[in-house]
Specification:
single chain, 79 residues, mainly alpha, 65% helix, 0% strand, globular
Length: 79
């Protein structure tokens, strides 16, 4: 099982397949909560000019958006 507070991917991400499988099985409520915490972490990284962390978090956010679309729901960018 994968366990994380925010979703971030290094490049290249050797654990991407495992994380994506976990996301596909996550409840919608937990999925949205993960999106919100990842988005907050990305906002904080941008504000503190931590570009290296921001890049990984951005990859995570894009993955969450893609998988939410596959699962049939959208994520609210304003949350």
């Amino acid at each position: 099982m994968v366990d994380f507070d925010v979703l971030s991917f290094d490049h290249p991400a050797s654990d991407r397949a495992q994380k994506e499988a976990f996301l596909r099985d996550l409840s919608q409520q937990d999925f949205i909560a993960l999106y919100q915490t990842t988005r907050t972490a990305a906002r904080n990284a941008r504000q503190s000019s931590d570009m290296e962390r921001l890049y990984g978090l951005t990859r995570g956010l894009k993955t969450l958006q893609r998988i939410s679309g596959e699962r049939g729901f959208s994520l609210d960018a304003r949350s």
